[in-house]
Amino acid sequence: MKMDLMSGYKGVVGLLVGNENSSNEDRYVERLLDRISNGKLPEDRRNAITELQAVVSESQAFQLAFGAMGFPIMLSVLKEERDDVEMVRGVLETLVSALTPINHSKGASNEVHPALMNTDLLSREADCISLLLSLLEEDDFYVRYYTLQLLTALLTNSPQRLQEAILTIPRGITRLMDMLMDREVIRNEALLLLTHLTREAEEIQKIVVFEGAFEKIFSIIREEGNSDGGVVVQDCLELLNNLLRSNASNQVLLRETVGLDSLILILKLRGSSFTFNQQKTINLLSALETIKLLLKGGSESDPGKDMNKQTNKTTLVQKKILDHLLILGVESQWVPVPVRCAAMRCIGDLIAGDSKNRDLLASKVLGEEPHVEPALNSILRILLRTSSMQEFIAADYIFKSFCEKNADGQSMLASTLIPQPYSMNHAFLEEDVNMSFGSMLLHSLTLGENGDLETCCRAASVLSHMLKDHLQCKERVLRIEIEAAPMQSLGAPEPLMHRMVKYLAVASSMKFHDGKSSTSGNSYVQAIILKLLITWLADCPSAVHCFLDARPHLTYLLELVSNSSETVCIRGFAAVVLGECVIYNKSTDRGKDAFAIVDTISQKIGLSSYFLKFDEMQKSSIFSSLESSLTHRSFARSSAASMADIEDVDGNDLSEKKNLDHPILSSILDSNFMNLVKSLEADIREQIVEVYSRPKMKVAVVPAELEQRSGESDAEYIKRLKVFVEKQCSEIQDLVLRNASMAEDLAKTGSTLQPEQRVSGGSDRVPIETLHRDLQEASQRLEMLKAEKAKVESEAIMYRNLAGKTEADLRSLSDAYNSLEQSNLLLENEVKALKREGHSTFPDVDAIKAEAREEAQKESEGELNDLLVCLGQEQSKVERLSARLLELGEDVDILLEGIGDDAGAAEDGEDEEDDE
Amino acid sequence: MSYAYLFKYIIIGDTGVGKSCLLLQFTDKRFQPVHDLTIGVEFGARMITIDNKPIKLQIWDTAGQESFRSITRSYYRGAAGALLVYDITRRETFNHLASWLEDARQHANANMTIMLIGNKCDLAHRRAVSTEEGEQFAKEHGLIFMEASAKTAQNVEEAFIKTAATIYKKIQDGVFDVSNESYGIKVGYGGIPGPSGGRDGPSASAGGCCS
Questions:
Q1: Is Plastid tagged as a keyword (chain B) (predicted)?
Q2: What is the pLDDT of residues A256-310, one digit of tens each?
Q3: 8 Å CB contact of A167 and B40
Q4: Residue A288 CB: number of other CB atoms within 10 A?
Q5: Residue A231 and residue A236: Cα distance in Å, rounded?
Q6: I want to staple A90 with a disulfide (CB 3.0 to 4.6 A). Which of A49, A63, A699, A881 is the partner?
Q7: Any long-range contacts for A115-122 (C-beta under 8 Å, 24+ apart)?
Q8: What distance in Å separates residue B144's CA from the closest CA in chain A?
Q9: Which of B65, B74, B211 is the best residue to mutate to test the A interface, defined by the most A CB atoms within 10 Å of its own CB?
Q10: CB < 8 Å to A173, chain B
């Protein structure tokens, strides 16, 4: 029968995009619903449910029709037919079908989504959630299964409502948690539901943990074989991460009561199987994410954040996390790149700002005797030689974390930088584990000579970490000189810094040789070398001195700043280096001092266009994208998608930022560095203005000196004055020159401005001042208005609340009144009814009275008769006795005289009564 | 991390009576005069020893504000012990005890051990509730009673430990089915499973699996 109907409707369903036949579906669904709610035979109702389920799962039109009227009926069946497992099951299955999207191949995107709509409708049904949660306690497997599916569907589409509902239902979460101990299918479904549920809501996260989530999660993970387990392990870890993300309270609980052993166990690579299928890779990545979350601590706003974070770190280190991370990130050659990167980033987090952990890392030795080497050397080797950009960035992060605010560590690394003779430098094997950190680094730095700028710039990045904020290291490295290659042995060995500038130039020139293809490829090489220079020169006059030692450096930098084919970022960085040459310049040599540099800048570039480079850089995407990359994403569950996910970790998040700068820049140019650049820029501006506004006078004008001194001859006096005037004259010439270049600069800037602005010129001052005043006044007024607005708003809110309260009061009053009226009505009715009843009883009373009277009468009559009979008998007795007495000769009348009175009186009374 | 038993506690009572400070004093042995309002619940843990057995206390400190009641109620059922706190300098916090108790009776399991704590007993000069009144209330409702001060740490340790001792005694007396975790009690390594209790040493069927 069902099949017949189905085939009958298939044709209609096929047509159903324009909805012109919707009434057919409506009618059909209506009929079925009617049978379900009003049917007499359970069998018939069940059949109707089965039919309904079939059509609803088949087409969107039926989903719509069902959604429009079905929910109240279905829910009432769930409430009232709880014992009929089959019916409950059918209803739940129908609801699941109504909430499951049906893929229409030709479905347009702006079409209504019945499944979504139905979810919303269902979630609005009162008590729906508590009803569903109570169904989780049913014994029937399918009832629990479908219920979980329904809850998941509700959660996906209206999470807020479900979360709130679940929080208000006592034991709601307990029931869900119990499902984790249920049969496998249910357990897995419950895992997904809980994962959804805990994604945002912190309070739910805590309750779930209160209900023992950690123990359950880890026991499932253990059962499934830790990282070797299937997708369930991934689900468990995602739930775990949801519970720990920015939730200090839960982190404390995990650490203090459940412990971290189970977590560490997941990271352990066991046995001889070194195969990493994609699931294992994802599992490991998820577990590393857990470590990362613990290392990050609670939410930003938590005042005890740092302490909690520190305790997490300490506990993790006690559990030998570093060894596991080193195995995953550095030692094991079978581990896929994404896992290695994640492990290295965790190492970076672990040592960041923690001197103990940094020392621990520095002391670690990897490999087996005799081929052991310090872990830091291994990491450097990975950094220099990996083919994956992400791996380089991850390794670089370790060195950054290691060097930041770690002067001892920086010195330790820098102390190994010992230049080797050229021949030796090129003779060693790269694989040699005995090579020192410094020689590996120096070797790579000089590889730029052979055109390997990539390796060279990676080494430069490490070097910049080592030099950051560490004057001794900067000066130490300044003294390093590199021997020139034999064939070009024209000159003496040159300083390492000069080599770096040279490679910078090579990088830019290579770019032009290669044409467009590698434009972005080399811009990060330049940026990283520039970063090294900026870090190096900062606060270090001797570095500035060394840099300016070679005259071409300045010229090259000036070219770089104004080279329009370079990226905004490169030009900006070059401008920063130039600026550093001004502010950290302690040189007194004419031509190399700060004044000379400023003059050169203003002559060659023009000060305003020089400053423009800073503005452009500030506005560029590198600066703006600094804060944005913090969103977390979870791994896709479908295996097809997830492999792409992993493979694409390289540049996945980065590729979206489509600009001229290389994506790697946003990782290497971290916020610390960018802040340095920002603060430098401010200093540079200030310093340059300083140089111009208060030029250092070589000739001090002291009035006293102009007077003739006592004992000074006129000739001497004139000579002295002449020298003085000569000096002043040359200084005036200098100033005139500077003034000319400034005027030129001004003219250039002016030409880019609006013509009328230029014309008005100085006469503008007065209107400007009035305008300024106006502006101030206006802004004051604005402030006042704002304050007023806020006040009014808060008042409005208050009144709204008040109104709401009053309304509620009114409502409750009117409710009360209504109920009073109702009860009044009820009472009245009752009274009426009573009255009516009262009327009908009165005649009865009369009747009863009459009856009673009758009866009484009858009774008294009977008695009277008896008496009369008695009397009659007595009379006849008397008559007979008197006749006998007469016979005996007695005078009867005299004998009866006394008695007659009495008898007569009695007889009289009886007569009277009889009359009545 | 090994323990014989794990007990779950909740701390309840009006806002501002010093629940969070009691917890902080107990877990960290420090006092924080200005404490942020607790949002929802916060967690703390500590190990104690009773009858020579290590016992882990998991303590959930709840927000006292009315608006969080529906959230905090979720924690009642699974708790083995509750510290019901009032402030001896604020009469109204004592007056509200009955409503808290009613809440607890309604949502918690019947065997939950409740300790009544009159906090801030260091502020004797501002006392608004006498010790006798506290004792009387506790007696009437079958609670254990103590006055304490989170500031001076007076009786703080004792309050938590005495509650634990009471729960421990109940276990020994077989009041709980300790294999059922919904009472807020868990058997760890070296624990004595089952309501029979009283025997020493770990049992083969010790259910706890956490360390």
A1: no
A2: 888 899 999 999 887 655 678 889 999 999 999 999 999 998 887 777 778 889 9
A3: no
A4: 25
A5: 9
A6: A49
A7: A115/A63, A115/A153, A116/A157, A117/A64, A117/A67, A118/A63, A118/A66, A118/A67, A118/A71, A119/A153, A119/A154, A119/A156, A119/A157, A119/A158, A120/A157, A120/A158, A121/A67, A121/A71, A122/A71, A122/A95, A122/A98, A122/A150, A122/A154
A8: 25
A9: B74
A10: 74
Q: Is residue B193 part of a domain?
A: no
Q: Is residue B29 part of a domain?
A: yes
In this structure, is residue A144 part of a structural domain?
Answer: no
Give the residue numbers spanning the domain of A529: 502-511+518-641+661-705+713-726
Q: Is A264 on the interface with B (CB under 8 A)?
A: no
Summarised one tens digit per residue, pLDDT across range B34-75 is 878 888 888 999 999 999 999 999 999 999 888 888 888 889
Q: Which of B36, B107, B210 sits opposite A303 (nearest CB)?
A: B36
Q: Per residue in A647-698, pLDDT tens?
A: 544 444 433 334 445 567 777 777 788 888 888 888 888 888 777 766 555 5
Residue A219 and residue B78: Cβ atoms within 8 Å?
Answer: no
Domain-embedded: residue B33:
yes
Under an 8 A CB cutoff, do B74 and A207 touch? yes
Backbone torsions φ then ψ of A826, nearest 5 degrees: -60, -45
Q: Give the nearest partner residue to A253 out of B58, B77, B107, using CB atoms.
A: B58
Q: What angle do CA A787, A790, A795 make, to 5 degrees?
A: 125
pTM: 0.73
CB pairs below 8 Å between A and B: how many?
A: 62
Residues of B in contact with A212 (CB under 8 A): 181
Of A210, A258, A303, the CB nearest to B75: A210
Query: What was the pLDDT predicted at B167?
Result: 95
How many domains does chain B contain in total? 1
A775 within a domain of the structure (yes/no): no
Q: How confident is the model over A357-377, as a mean pLDDT?
A: 88
- Domain at B78, CATH number: 3.40.50.300
ipTM of the complex: 0.81
How many beta carbons lie within 10 A of that of residue A900, not counting itself? 11
- Domain limits for position B124: 3-185
In this prediction, residue A346 carries a pLDDT of 96
Q: Is B84 within a domain?
A: yes
Per-residue pLDDT tens digits for A818-839? 888 888 888 888 888 887 776 6
Structure tokens at A425: 């430098």
Residue of A nearest to B57 (CA): A257
Domain harbouring A522, CATH code: 1.25.10.10
